């Protein structure tokens, strides 16, 4: 709002600049290229937040694509909303609402680690809008499974109501980024791990399906999902040599892989 002299305040001006900055590269493209650009919805794993996608998002935006990397309820900058009421269904709704309110269509949906549960749930609700689905070192649940079920009966039970984050070294994050990642990880509401998901295999009907496995990060549930889809000719699968957090360890390579799906 302008003041009585008709001039905008410095704060108002800076707020406008910040709001426009994320879309500047996209807006600068010729109309034909804007129409051809693809949207990406990047969903982070447990204990993380939208912050972990910054390096990948910047690269995709520079190519003229639109990127949404929402932080799920109760973690990251939304940690103040953490409570016993936050469940896996909450996180599915977080992403569905991001897609619905931003009118996204024919986009690439990407889920890392725990977010394999989330994007599988999103595919159950909006399968017709998804052009490609990408599981990055992630879980793919069968009907009625939860994260706890996928971990197996011998796994230690999670504490309640919140699960503290593991050290970044557990994810084999590169040494340069260890301190930074440790400073960003936040506790995760336990019900995200204990709530089962209704799955009709809607994700299998999406035209393009990709699974990327990081063998250096041992995880039986990821191995099981990888082997299952690797035997299916409708999937593109690959293995990469880095830590579990691909978006942090190999952002350039990951951005190229995602852009190749356009």
Mind explaining what this structure looks like?
The chain is α/β, with parallel strands linked by helices. It has a single domain (30-259), classed as Alpha/Beta hydrolase fold, catalytic domain (Rossmann fold). Helices cover 37% and strands 14% of the residues. The protein contains twelve helices and eight strands. It has helices at residues 10-21, 24-28, 31-36, 54-62, 88-101, 115-125, 147-151, 178-184, 191-194, 220-230, 246-249, 251-259, and strands spanning 39-43, 66-68, 107-112, 130-136, 162-163, 188-189, 208-213, 235-239. The protein has a six-stranded parallel β-sheet with strand order 2-1-3-4-7-8, sandwiched between helices. Helix 4 crosses helix 12 (251-259) and helix 5 crosses helix 6. The longest helix has 14 residues, at 88-101. The model is unreliable at 1-36 (pLDDT under 50).
Q: Could you say what the CATH architecture is?
A: 3-Layer(aba) Sandwich
Arithmetic mean pLDDT: 90
Catalogue the unreliable spans: 1-36
Write down the Rg.
Answer: 19 Å
Secondary structural class = alpha/beta
Q: Choose one word for the global shape.
A: globular
CATH top-level class? Alpha Beta
The major pleated sheet works out as: 6 strands, parallel
* CATH topology type: Rossmann fold
**The CATH H-level homologous superfamily:** Alpha/Beta hydrolase fold, catalytic domain
Can you write the helix and strand succession as a string?
Answer: HHHEHEHEHEHEHEHEHEHH
Number of domain units: 1
Oligomer category: single chain
Strand content: 5-15%
Q: What's the helical proportion of residues?
A: 25-40%
């Amino acid at each position: 709002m302008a003041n009585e002299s008709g001039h905008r305040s410095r704060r108002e001006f800076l707020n406008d600049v910040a709001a426009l900055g994320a879309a500047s590269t996209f807006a600068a493209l010729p109309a034909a290229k804007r129409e051809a650009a693809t949207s990406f919805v990047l969903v982070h794993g447990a204990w993380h937040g939208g912050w972990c996608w910054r390096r990948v998002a910047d690269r995709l935006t520079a190519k003229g694509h639109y990127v949404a990397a929402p932080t799920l309820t109760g973690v990251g900058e939304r940690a103040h909303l953490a409570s016993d009421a936050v469940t896996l269904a909450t996180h599915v709704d977080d992403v569905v609402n991001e897609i619905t309110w931003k009118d996204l269509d024919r986009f690439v949906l990407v889920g890392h680690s725990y977010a394999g549960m989330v994007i599988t749930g999103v595919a159950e609700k909006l399968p017709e809008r998804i052009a490609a689905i990408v599981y990055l070192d992630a879980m793919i649940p069968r009907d009625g499974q939860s994260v706890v079920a996928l971990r197996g009966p011998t796994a230690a039970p999670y504490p309640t109501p919140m699960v503290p984050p593991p050290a970044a070294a557990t994810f084999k994050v590169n040494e340069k980024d260890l301190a930074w990642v440790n400073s960003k990880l936040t506790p995760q509401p336990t019900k995200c791990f204990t709530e089962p998901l209704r799955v009709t295999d809607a994700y299998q009907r999406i035209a393009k399906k990709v699974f990327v496995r990081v063998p250096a990060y041992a995880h039986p549930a990821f191995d099981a999902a990888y082997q299952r889809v690797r035997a299916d000719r409708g999937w593109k699968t690959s293995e990469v040599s880095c830590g579990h957090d691909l978006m942090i360890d190999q952002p350039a390579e990951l951005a190229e892989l995602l852009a190749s799906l356009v």
